[in-house]
Amino acid sequence: MSSNFKNLYTSNNPPLQATLMRGSNIESIHKIHAVITDKKGRVLMCAGNPEYKSFIRSALKPFQAIPFVSSGAASKINDESKSIALACGSHSGSKLHSREAFKILWEYDIDINNLKCPKTKTSPLEHNCSGKHAAFLATCKKMNWPLDSYLKGDHPLQIEIFRIVSELLEIPLSEIKAERDDCGAPTLYLKILEMSRLYSLLSSSETAELEQISRAITINPIMISDNNKFDTEIIKASHGQVIGKGGAEGIQCLCKVNEGIGIALKVEDGSKRAKHAVSLHLLKQLEWISDLRIQDIEEKVFNLSEGVRIEVKGKLKFQES
Question: What is the pLDDT, as a whole number, of residue 5?
């Protein structure tokens, strides 16, 4: 697929549209902006506005995990790759996930009460961001940084994450705009083409840390979400060749390992079902996953009532050079 990117170009491609149909009647319509870039940030294909801005939300996690790897904090943990994958994931809070988050804290003698992600059910370990938070704390312990303020924007850990993203995107640090995500950690306000570029860099293993993170994700798909959940099923269906990581409010990022190509999309109204439907539509267009496996993902991920379906219209088209 990548070899064809330089051959055809068109422009003025409208956003994609996902329509929820109940019988023969339209119930909901969602508009989606999507873009593919290479690791230099060049827009290769798009639908809608590639400069559409939104918060990247949890799709930032693989890049928030870089200090966990680069500091050496991850290397102390038994089954290091599983811990790295959990740090990148938005998991279901199962015993498997909670135990892995606890293991990160235990290795660094950090009390569970230091976790500042919201308490879910009986423990903050069950929160879907507990892996990221545990990795944050382990990194702080390794670097002798304060634990109690690890989520503040002026904390050394968060400053390091901002610096890393700024460097990867080749934009001034002053242009990095952060706000509080629902779990308490900063998230970034980016163009979807910048989100796509981050994932193209993850795909190409641009740095040693990104190579390690990419490998950890692909060999531990259950740590990214869970069985029968979108991101995990994408990785499994592609045999580790496609990485998917979503974010709240209609954000989805994807990349094909070793291709140096990233995809990012944003559903304007934030619909989760629309982002999943459109992601599968694009994966089918790009032939990254077979039709049969896409059908299998649809059966596992979507829980639609009888007579209800989602129709996606539009395609990514090559961008004018």
Answer: 41
Decide: 209 and 219 in contact? Cβ < 8 Å: no
How far, rounded to the nearest angstrom, does the alpha carbon of residue 188 sit from its chain's CA centroid? Answer: 13
Question: Is residue 94 predicted with pLDDT exceeding 80?
Answer: yes
Q: What is the CATH number of the domain that holds 34?
A: 3.40.710
Give residue 318's pLDDT band: very low, low, confident or very high (50, 70, 90).
Answer: confident
Position 320 confidence tier, pLDDT thresholds 50, 70, 90: low
Burial zone of 12 (CB within 10 Å; 0-12 exposed, 13-18 middle, 19+ buried): exposed
Number of compact structural domains in the chain = 1
pLDDT digits (tens, 9 = 90+) for 247-293: 999 999 999 999 999 999 999 999 999 999 999 999 999 999 999 99
